[in-house]
Write a structure and sequence with these properties.
With 209 residues, the protein is of the alpha/beta class. 27% of the residues lie in helices and 24% in strands. Strands 3-1-2-4-5-6-7-8-9 form a nine-stranded mixed beta sheet. Belongs to the radical SAM superfamily. 7-carboxy-7-deazaguanine synthase family.
Length: 209
Amino acid sequence: MQKSIQQLVDEGKMLPLMEEFYTIQGEGYHKGTAAYFVRIGGCDVGCHWCDVKESWNAEIHPPTDTDVIVENAVKYSDVVVVTGGEPLTWDMTVLTATLKSKGAKTHIETSGAYPLTGDWDWICLSPKKVKLPKEDIYKKADELKCIVYNNNDFAFAEEQASKVSEDCILYLQPEWSKREKMIPLIVDYVMKNPKWKVSLQTHKYLNIP
């Protein structure tokens, strides 16, 4: 019997694709390097300052065959960044296995609010207060990226940093609309607490996607 589209989505053989594009990674450890981005629709974390709110409703993004997503990606780059939305809303096992079979490196940007699926070469964990990460992802994160919207976010960042491994790279990143106010505070905080690094959304300064 032929499987329904919903069954294929549930199995990760199709995913609600919002957009895909080849660009320069603008944030965190890999900033400045070329990568292919796959933005998956669907997110119920609901950050009020989210700059991709159109990704939240998965139903408006067409279920796309995972093999097609992979074929599009590897034409451009051997580094594929999966983001959202919240990509871990869906099972990432098939996507990452297929990417790796084509020789691609798999990166994910996630809030960690859902169980970790997939085989990842790099995990960027960006926790959100409204829906905290699952405990098992903390020790697997390669970088922790905490968004600073107000002064209270420094304490939250420290709470999150206490849960990751010693090798995890720690970043504080100003929320874009608050950057003029928060950057001086972040710079001062990092100078006093040098285990942290500053992350900026450099792609926005470069005026690229």
